[in-house]
Amino acid sequence: MGIYRQLVVERIHFALKAASEARALENRGVKGAIREVLIADLFRPLLPSDMGIASGVLISAFDEGESAQQDIIIFHKRIIPPLLFEQGPAIVPVESALACIEIKSKLTSAELRKAHDSAVSVRNLSRHCGFRDDSGKWVDTRSAGLQSLLLALDTDLSSAGQNEWERYMNLLGDEYPALNMLCVPGRGCWYLNEQGVVFDKDVGKHFKQDHSPLQRTSDFIAPSAEHVEVLEFLGGVIDTSQRVGPSRGTPPLSGYFRSSDYVLRKIRIASGSSASSYIGVSDSWESKILVSRTVPCFFVSRVEDALKCSQERAVEIQQELEKLGIESELI
Fold first, then answer.
1. What confidence score (pLDDT) does residue 288 get?
2. From start to end of the chain, where are the E strands?
3. What end-to-end distance do the CA atoms of the chain give, in Å?
4. Do residues 172 and 285 both lie within one domain?
């Protein structure tokens, strides 16, 4: 075993033992004791200097959205600075967040459902793009998603029979997993391995880029005395965070200072033959008025091809579309 791996394994043993002892404090009403132990002894020492870690809430400049409170948020310090408080949860702009981790002292079906719902609240947040085109205008390009993971010290499942991923799939029914990885030390680590899946936030659905059926497949890392399942979990967290950071670019801090009137919106057609398509506004729109069907805009089938416009401009477009008998909705 290499020296680096050996030292991390020893740290895992120490952190899990300390977290297990902290369960007694939580049983006596000291909330967050396990989380604080894991942050201090397991996660923070492994983070690069440009990453921070906190417990708190993710916020979005779009519609002033916010997530459920997250046990652990790993964020990039140089994107948009979070607001950190000595007491109370941190406020972290979603553009800066790289990964969210739910911590459970004992995993049950009810706790798993709560963790999934919390991850959904993260997934539903909109992020501002951090890239501009050659003319200096913001471009609506796709950046790497924000992964949500779960680490539980124990589980109410027996070692025989159903495993954690099978329980999660049964719990979801037809829903797609919002938790990308589940780890229970001594039981194993399960992670979603399906490739080419895209989440269309505007319609709230996942789909495969090649239009094949969703499979929700996973890989499994069996436990060992050296806690390779926890090593895999930690490696996944850090590797993902390092990969996601550069894809965020430099989104504008000013987006959080503007009133909701300046929130950028997209317009989806809600009636007629073009229903479920989006409006793509041409460059000439700014100097023209929508007065007939020969309008300076066009229908596009994919949301990533639709251009964002201000709330005020979007309402103007909607009003003109209404005159033409075309129903639409703001996204």
1. 38
2. 51-59, 70-76, 90-93, 97-104, 147-152, 179-184, 188-192, 197-200, 205-208, 218-221, 264-265, 267-269, 278-281, 297-300, 309-310, 328-330
3. 52
4. no
Is residue 134 located within the same domain as residue 112? yes
When divided into structural domains, the chain yields a total of: 2
Q: What is the token pair recorded at 87?
A: 């007491």
Residues 145 and 292 in one domain: no
Residues 205 and 230 in one domain: yes
Radius of gyration, alpha carbons of the chain: 22
Which amino acid type is present at position 77? K
Which structure tokens are listed for 290?
Answer: 């929508």
64 touches 91 (CB < 8 A): no
What domain range includes position 129?
3-254
**Residue 221 Cα to chain centre, angstroms:** 23
- Considering the entire predicted model, what is its pTM? 0.79
- Answer with the one of 199, 220, 254 that is the final residue of a domain: 254
The Cβ of residue 78 has, within 10 Å, a number of other Cβ atoms equal to 12
DSSP label at 283? Answer: G
Answer for the pair 86, 228: CB distance below 8 angstroms, yes or no: no
Q: Report the pLDDT value the prediction gives residue 281, as an integer from 0 to 100.
A: 63
Which helix or strand (DSSP H or E) is residue 219 part of? Answer: strand 218-221
Same domain, residue pair 45 and 178: yes
Tokens (6 digits) for 260: 């909701």
pLDDT < 50: residue spans in the chain:
283-295
Question: Cα separations (Å) of 40 from 54, 96, 141?
Answer: 10, 21, 36
Q: How far apart are CA 85 and CA 31, in angstroms?
A: 17
What pLDDT, on the 0 to 100 scale, is given for residue 294? 45
Cβ neighbours of 185 (radius 10 Å): 22
